[in-house]
Records
---
Amino acid sequence: MERLQKVIAKAGIASRRKAEELIRSGRVKVNGKTVTEMGVQVSPSDTVSVDGKELQKENKVYYLLNKPKKTICSLKDEKDRPTVLSCFTDVGERIFPIGRLDYETTGILLLTNDGDFANQMMHPRYHLPKTYEVAVDGVISDNMAAMLRRGIMLEGRKTLPAEVEILARSAKKNKTVLHITIYEGRNREIRKMMEYFHCDVTRLARIGYGFLTLGNLRQGQYRRLRPFEVRKLIAMSENQSAPQE
């Protein structure tokens, strides 16, 4: 059972607030009866109509995109920059990205039309591991890596312990490539970690999301998640515990 205004919003008819206005003004019917009060609960078997038009029950879809550089993780951009939705040419549903990756960051981005699934993936009490490949100008020493594994202070709050693997390091070239796995979703966290050590990120790609990897997907390519993958992500998020500080 879900609240009527939420069902209307999820159908893409209007925002939650606008849906409440539609209900108050008597424009919404449930099973043929006009509803004007808030808080009415409806089930999937109920028929909901707005202005006489029955809501279509949208199929839930889930996609994994290898986000290309220089795309925005939003539905539209005021500067008219390309959004991640421009990668989807044959999808009929109204999908949206789960979380965000920076304009210059590439890699795994999930998109869906399932608001409950999206909320669970983004909720701060769930700690799905996310792995990034990071290239920087600067040398990340073993001591710095150990600090990241313990957690460092960023903006007055200690980060959760990260998993760190140094892949390549050159003092002569002043460059480091590493894998970092984090268990929280702070804004620009990886970049801020590197800034903490006065290193400039030159390339950043999310290569792991829970158990998911990019596989053979090139930048801009996507695939539908399989039903068992969706179920596994939900189960993993419910059972995942973050490393202790």
---
Amino acid sequence: MSKAYPSNLSRDQYELLSDLIPEAKPGGRPRTVDMEEILNGIFYVLVEGVRWRSLAADFPAWHTVYTYFRQWRKDKTWIEIQDRLHEWTRIEQERNLRPSAAIIDSQSVKSAARVSQSVGYDAGKKIKGRKRFVAVDTLGLSWRVVVTAASVGEGEGGKQVLKRVKEMGKSVSRLHTIWADGGFDGEPFMQWVMDVCRWLVEVVLRPEQTKGFVLLKKRWVVERTFGWLMGCRRLVRDYELLPETSETFIYLAMIRIMVRRLA
């Protein structure tokens, strides 16, 4: 067993996740690695922000931990786990299993020096790196995430993330309203959402002639979600060679939040 790192799952939290872990593939060697330690190693990388090769020695071999992380990214296991925990969290909060409203927003973050794929410059934020487009429910729990170059506009990124939300099928059958900030304002984007997704976009704007911090109705929920992500050092800057890997770490951060609420 590894040391009691702050990022480790408790026994109850692991028991909750254990039922969602895929079984070993048939026909191969029996699985001998401790899956609790695999998950703890992955969350250690997420929370502490270390490189895979710098994984603490008391975890399983770093390449074994990384292999599980990568395989479950490619076969969408992480998304399936997040979706199941999302449902359980809404039930625990006595909310309807299928939300009727969502909030979308974007966050630009600097990329590491060695990252070159899907990197751009956000002229508004003056940041060179990537942009995270997130769609969350009214609890602030993510539905889908898209990571693009920081130069991608709000309208285009909003379309990409809402396409993924639309692909969730019955899970979003009651969805009818999308709240967004002024960056998503504009007839082309709103009309696209109406025509393709059959949803209404409601833009929440900052009151005129106000200075300093203002708590905006509905929009504060997704801003809080971005704050949660910043609690994971791996997400403070984008270190990933592939944007898909960045998306996976965001899903992992949300999995960690939800499992800590449920157990």
